[in-house]
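Quick one:
INPUT:
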């Protein structure tokens, strides 16, 4: 049976030969190494490990690292691109600003 590929956002069918776009999205936690009170590091680590033991394993993994792969039609890709460009400065734009000053 023919199982058509569809856009993950709008659900539009993407028949063979249609231009489609793949979005690979990785969200991961960043830790800069800063700890508020350096005096009781061992106590804080002990408390953190106790909290981790109580947490649901799946939830814990999601808090640290998530990866998505989406398939988009051209229209949804264009809308996503416009939103990203409107809301975030791209790294290349930031680098360009730095070289101008
Ligand atoms: Zn779409």
């Amino acid at each position: 049976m023919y199982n058509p590929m569809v856009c993950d956002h709008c659900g539009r069918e993407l028949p063979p030969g249609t231009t489609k776009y793949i979005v690979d999205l990785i969200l991961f936690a960043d830790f800069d190494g800063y700890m508020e009170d350096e005096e009781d590091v061992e106590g804080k680590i002990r408390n953190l490990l106790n909290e981790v033991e109580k947490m649901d394993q799946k939830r814990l993994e999601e808090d640290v690292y998530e990866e998505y792969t989406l398939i988009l039609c051209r229209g949804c890709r264009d809308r996503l691109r416009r939103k990203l460009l409107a809301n975030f400065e791209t790294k290349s734009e930031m680098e360009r600003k730095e070289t101008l000053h």
